[in-house]
Amino acid sequence: MSSSQSSLGYYNTLPSTSTTTALSSTVSIMGSQGAISQLNNIARAALGLGIATMALSSSLYIIDGGQRTVIFDRIRGILDETVGKGIHFLIPWLQKLVIFDIHTKPHTFSSVSSTRDLQMVNLTLRVLSRPEVTRLPQIVQTLGLKYDEKVLPSIGNEVLKTVMAPKAGHLRHLHEAPHFLLRLQHQGPPDGQPNPSRSLAP
């Protein structure tokens, strides 16, 4: 009896195959859950970092040399401050940039006008212009971004008609005088008339 009891006790102390399988499956499930939780944490961190990067990139802006910026605020309107070159901060959605090019630009205007002796003259005016930096907010409010197309044509045409056109005939005669003197020097004056080129010579 003692030998049989001892053998039974020995068999009772040995773990069964089903218990070992259950333990291993439990350990594997716990390991997979830990890996899933780590992946979820990494995904949350990557998402937060991406959102922070997008917010930072949309809040910073760079102004190059030769440019100036006026800020439009949805609450306060056009701000009175003009922003220069460099890296600056912006409130997303609430503020919007209005960028100006302050380089000197050429503009050409042409007009056909009549002189005092009723001759038609084709005049061309070339204007170099650039905006005044301190008044860019007022320019945005009153004229907009295409201020040069609204202001310069009227000024150019007025200058051509009121200033240049009356003097065009005189300028034309001054332009033709050297050619007339050269013809006189080569051909000579008509018979009995003095040579004007000699009288004009120093």
Automatic annotation (TrEMBL):
Transmembrane segments: none annotated. The lineage of its organism: Eukaryota, Viridiplantae, Streptophyta, Embryophyta, Tracheophyta. This is Prohibitin. One of its GO terms (cellular component) is mitochondrial inner membrane. Residues 58-200 form the Band domain. Its main location: mitochondrion. Component of a prohibitin multimeric complex in mitochondrial membranes. It comes from Lithocarpus litseifolius. Signal peptide: none annotated. InterPro entries: Band_7 (IPR001107), Prohibitin (IPR000163).
